[in-house]
Each structure stands twice: as structure tokens, then as C-alpha cells.
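User: quick one, fold this
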Amino acid sequence: MSGLSVRRFFPLMQEALLALNANRLRSALTMLGVVIGVASVILMLAIGEGSRRRVETTISSLGSNQLIVLSGAAGNAGIRSGAGSLPNLSLDDAAAIAELYSVAAAAPVANIPVQAVFGAKNKATSVTGTTPSYLRINNMTLTAGVSFTEADVRVAANVALIGATVANELFGEESPIGQIIRLQRQTFEIIGVLKAKGQGFGGGDQDDVIILPVTTAQRKLAGTVFPNTVSMIMLESGLPQQKGYTEQEVTRLLRQRHRIAPGAENDFSVRDVSALTETLRLTSKILSVLLGAIAFISLMVGGIGIMNIMLVSVTERTREIGVRMALGARRASILGQFLMESIFLSVAGALMGLLMGFGLGWIIQWSGVLTPVYSSTSIALSVGVAVAVGVGFGFWPARRAAQLQPVEALRYQ
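Assistant:
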């Protein structure tokens, strides 16, 4: 629109609107491409950001600097079971690991599936037998009550902490604190309710859990012939930047305690949770980039639609252009009118696309699948690109119209 004065801007806009109104269906279909493109950009970027934040929340809920020690794999007649099936990790191993300089905290873990019963209500869930350090390692806090203590562990007290899901399904609006539940015919007093953490890595509910003192779980629920063993030990490294050193120290200690000969294979494994979290972060970033790329392709398709329709419009209105130029209209005016039409189509389409993107995002959030996260940057980017695409793809048809020779345009049939 170079060479056009501000005084000509509003007349050009009026002419552009009249031209678009004359072909309302075609104009609406042209805008539809931009609407879908902008809605896709807004929604895809919001979904990508929402997914990234969910991953970050899940990662933070696991605790930082976390290592996991799993017991070995049992073998029978040449058939080898998975890690954690060999009962060779003990409470004493966990206590010894906790004494290492490079370890900030360590907690044994024994998981047992149970049916929790309260009055007429019951629920299938799992018990985690552990020590108070488990809450620190996993960044767990309480919304009500108190945690059990090391004294409770020593005496195998019948006390329990319950997750938010268990509390909701068994007690509803009633306070669980002080209530008695039954697990495998044993009664337990609820002394604390854990703060909700949401889904874990595998999609499992981290709040569907009951936490007991590890000795209580082993002696009164597990029914194992190895009463002092656990399948896993969770620990927090006291050297955040040197978790590799902590892993080496734990491995050296357990090899000594398990009397493993030099060169022999370990009967346990030490795993760094951060390796999994980094993989999830990378996957989330790739997903966001992929979704954004697909959305921008949709926007480019919308721009091509504008160009095609504007080319058709130039062809249909060739005689009109010739008449206007014969009557003294300048090339800049012709260029400005067609550019104004493409700008209006792209801007109107972008605004409608924003509304569609927000509406679809609300539906996704309402369904509970995911919470899209919108940012001012993504909104400005999508609208800016939509307008740029509209102007860019509309410039060639507008320039083509402005370069028509009046005599040739008047002859066009």
C-alpha cells in the first residue's frame, strides 16, 4: 500500500468490504482456512505447553536427586524373573545406605496389594510399607494429620497415611483422621492424609495408596517367609551434582554386604530416576515442536487458499479493473484495494480462529483429558503469522491486478 495516503485508507476498506460482501460464501470459505489454521496453532501450542507442564509437575512430584535400588532377578530352571523378584534387599541394607556420606536419606519400600474396608465401603488399592524418610525423598506432604515416626516403625504400630484418592472414595466429605480401616482383617488408625500428586509416569494414580510403617506391612500384611526383606530401596543423593559418585558408593557397599566376589555379577541394580525424567522432557519438547509444525502448515494452507481466491477474484474483475484505470484510478489504488481484501480476510479469520481455539481448549479442559496452557506469545505469534501469511499470499494477486494494462483489461471477456 505504499504511495497511498491515510485519506484513501477508509475508502479502500469500504471498497474491499463491498467486494467481499458481493461474494459472501466464497469469502467465508476463504476465511475458513485461516480460521482453522489459527485455531490449530493456538490449540496445538496450548496442548504442547500443557503437556510439558504436566510432565514437569510429575517430575517434581518424584523428588530431586533420586536413586532406586532394586533387588535382583530370581531364576528357576533357567527361567529368569524380572528385577525385584529376588528377596535379597533388607531393612539393614537400607539403614546402612542411609549412613553413607553421599546419601541424604534412604527408605526401604515394600508394596502389597490390599482391599481397604471402611464401614460398608471398600476399595482395591496398594500398601507401601516404608519409613518416614520416604515422604522426604518423594516430596510428599500432608494436608491433614501427622506422619508416623521411627518409633512407630520399631514397634510395628497399626497407623496409616492415605492418599487423596483413597480418602475421597472411602470417606467422601468426612474427615479420615482418627478413623479405623481394615486391611486383610487387621485394623489401622488413619493419622494423616497425603497431599494430592496426580498421575505418575505410567499414568497410574499416585494418590491411590496407603502408607504404613514398613515393619507393620511386613509382619501383619505381607505373609512372606522373608520378613526382613524389601523389593526396593529409594534414596536421595546428598551430592546433587555427583549422583554418579553416590551410585558407585551404594554399589560398593551392597557388594560388600552381600559378599559378592570380585568380577561376579551384582544381585541388585541401582537406577537413576533423572535418566527417565530427561527422556520425558525431551519427548515433551519434541511433541510441542511437532504439534506447532503441524499447526503452522495448516496456517500456510489457509494462506494459499487466500491467494487462490484472490487470483480468481482478479480474473473475474479484470474488466472492472480496466474501467477503473481508464477513468484515472492509479495502480497504487488497485494494489491497495486487493491487498485490503486479503488483509481483511486474514485478520477476520485470525480473530475467529482465536475464538475457535479457546473454545476447543475449553472443551478439552472440561473433559479432564488435559489442561491447555495459553501464552500471550503463542497468541501474538499465531495472529501475526496469520496476518503476514494473508498479506504475503495476497500481494501477488494484488500486484498482478495493479499491473494490468487498461486496454487489455477492457478487452478481457
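User: anything notable?
Assistant: The longest strand covers residues 103-118.
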